[in-house]
Amino acid sequence: MRRLLPRGLLPYWQLSRQHTPLQPILDRVDGSPEVRVLSLGTGEPVVIRSFAEGDSVARLTRLLHRAYAGHAAEGRVFFASYQSVEDTAYRLGKGECWVALQAGEFVGTVTVAAPHVVPETYPAPAGSGSFWQLAVDPTFRGAGLGQRLLDVAEGRIAALGSVQVVIDTSAEAVNLVGWYRRRGYVPVGSWRWGVTNYESVVLVKDLMLGGPGR
Of 32, 79, 149, 179, which residue has the fewest beta carbons closer than 10 angstroms? Predict the structure, then answer.
C-alpha cells in the first residue's frame, strides 16, 4: 500500500543524500546495554534499555504514531506522526536509541546523539548534543515516563561529551514548549523543517549548569 504524506511534505530520507539500508542501522544503534527498571504506578514495572537488534522497528514506528497523533489531530503535523518504518530506521541510525517497555511492549522511546550534526544556519551551539523521537504512549501520560526518558537523553549526551543540548519543537505546541522550559530549556531561535507544517522553536539547555534531569 502506498503511504500518503500530508500535502507538501517530503519523506525524511529524501532530505538526505543517501537512504541507508535497514540492517546496517540495526547493527549500529545498540548503545549502552544498561537496564533501568521503574515503578510508575502503572501496573507492571517499566524497563528502559537501549534498542537491540531483535527489536521491531515497525512496532517502534507504531508507538511514534500513537504518541504524536494528538498533535496531528490539532493540526501540528510532527514528522513522527506519519513517518514510515524506513524513516524510523534511518533516524535510529543517526544516533543511540533507548526504549521503555512494559510487559515487552514499547511504551516510550528517545534517540540521542552528541555532538549532533545540524544544517549550517541552524541556531545551535557548536558541539551540542541533541535528542529526537522522544515519545510516550498516550496511556502513560502524566506518569513521569517522559521525564525519565528526558533524564536518560540528557545523561547520555553528557556522557558522550557535550555540555549543551539543543532541540526543536512546534512553536504552536504551547504546552510542550512550556514542559521543556520548566526543565531548563531556553528558546534561542527558530527553524523550519521540510517534513513538518509549522515553524519550530529551537531550545538549548546547558547541562553543566542545569544538569541532566534538573
Answer: 32
